[in-house]
Write a structure and sequence with these properties.
It is built from 11 helices and 19 strands. The protein has 408 residues and is of the alpha+beta class.
Length: 408
């Protein structure tokens, strides 16, 4: 098989995206979603593999900035739309695209690459480690009660059309980004993503709705949701939560109380919440929230030294890593990390190693959501100096769990 891997040209986008749809089963996207992805495409960062005049492989990389522990926003390639046509799988197409893409990311000077995986086991061989989790909840609002913090009764709630409330919601989101690792700065054009509401995606649910939380005339939170009416054989319907953000505990609780109290509903389905969502502390019976966790963001250190120096550490750390990285060999070898809550440096060293691990484990631990101790318990981190594992694991942790609020 002779194939050509090259940068995507604008005139080829429809054909390229059609091949991606085939790789994921052949169901076409709604026109509204297609238009947005076409608008967000960065053609100099998109790749395609051609076999003659047929597109057989696709991948792209958005130019994100992602929040890391300490609050910095670090450049990261948002790897997306990875697919191989069913007729060309297991022929090296994916590997060649990943090779070219990571070389490009390094040349762009972006120390991180991130993705969400339809099949998580695929990307570990390319150095990506699962770094965040998301929680799905099915909340029985007939039986679960909320405890409200001080000030919640002073929050004014106001319904608004989602498009009219967009700027107010985006202002709240922007203030929340650096407070939680893995949140993505909203790049131009991305403000349209939370508002996508294609009728073909709704099923029997209502159009998207929005409620704003206000204090002294200032927007301090929002929730976007739809309602699936009660079916003929059931007494109540379901609230389908899209997203909820707030700047204060009082506003956050008030928004959830509003969702709990919506007439003719007895359930809230939230498909993507942080593992440490304050909601779990507001409810009186978390078991009836039926929580389930799954992997979300997968992260790769493209440049180990630059990536480890870009975040801060919650305790002083001075440790030498022996890093294995067969796919990006420029990362392999020993690195000395020194840092604390104020900053860090990470440089090549000939000193004896304290911990040995692969770049995949560093990716999992990087945002503070997966502990090095737990990875060591699975045999994936080796302690070479007594005490180094505890020191590094504490330093890499973060008081707030990392969380990816939306896919890409």
């Amino acid at each position: 098989m002779t194939t050509e891997l090259r940068v995507l040209r604008p005139a080829e986008w429809d054909q390229w995206y059609g091949s991606l749809e085939l790789a994921f089963g052949g169901m076409p996207e709604p026109a509204e979603e297609l238009a947005l992805w076409r608008e967000l495409t960065l053609f100099d960062r998109w790749l395609g593999t051609w076999d003659g005049d047929e597109v057989v492989g696709t991948t792209g990389a958005f130019d994100f900035r992602i929040a890391v522990p300490g609050g910095a926003l670090v450049p990261a390639a948002g790897v997306t739309m990875v697919g191989v046509r069913p007729t060309h799988r297991r022929r090296g197409v994916l590997r060649s695209m990943m090779r070219r893409q990571l070389d490009d990311v390094r040349a762009w000077g972006e120390p991180l690459a991130v993705l969400t995986a339809s099949e998580p086991d695929i990307y570990g061989r390319f150095g990506y480690g699962p770094a965040t989790h998301q929680v799905r909840a099915h909340i029985d609002t007939d039986r679960v009660r909320l405890s409200m913090p001080d000030g919640a009764d002073g929050v004014r709630l106001r319904l608004s059309k989602p498009e009219e409330a967009r700027d107010a919601c985006e202002a709240v989101y922007a203030r929340r980004v650096t407070a939680r690792p893995a949140m993505l700065e909203r790049r131009p054009g991305w403000e349209a993503l939370p508002l996508l509401d294609a009728p073909s995606r709704r099923g029997d649910a209502s159009p998207l709705q929005c409620v704003l939380a206000e204090v002294d005339g200032r927007t301090v939170g929002y929730a976007r949701y739809s309602v699936r009416p009660r079916p003929d054989d059931a007494p109540y319907g379901t609230v389908l939560l899209r997203d909820v953000e707030a700047l204060t505990p009082a506003a956050y609780a008030a928004l959830w109380r509003f969702l709990f109290d919506l007439d003719l509903t007895n359930e809230i389905v939230a498909r993507n919440r942080p593992s440490d969502d304050p909601l779990w502390q507001l409810v009186d019976d978390v078991r009836r929230c039926r929580l389930a966790s799954e992997d979300s963001l997968h992260l790769r250190l493209v440049e180990v030294g630059a990536a480890l120096a870009a975040r801060t550490y919650q305790a002083p750390v001075d440790v030498v890593f022996e890093v294995e990285d067969a796919f990006c060999p420029w990362n392999a070898g020993r690195w000395r990390l020194t840092g604390d809550t104020k900053g860090a440096s990470c440089e090549r060293t000939e000193d004896a190693a304290d911990l040995a691990l692969s770049v995949r484990e560093l990716g999992s631990a990087y945002l503070g959501g997966v502990s090095l101790i737990s990875l060591a318990g699975a045999g994936r981190v080796r302690e070479l100096r007594e005490g180094a594992l505890h020191e590094a694991s504490v330093a890499f942790g973060n008081p707030v769990a990392p969380w990816l609020p939306h896919g890409f």
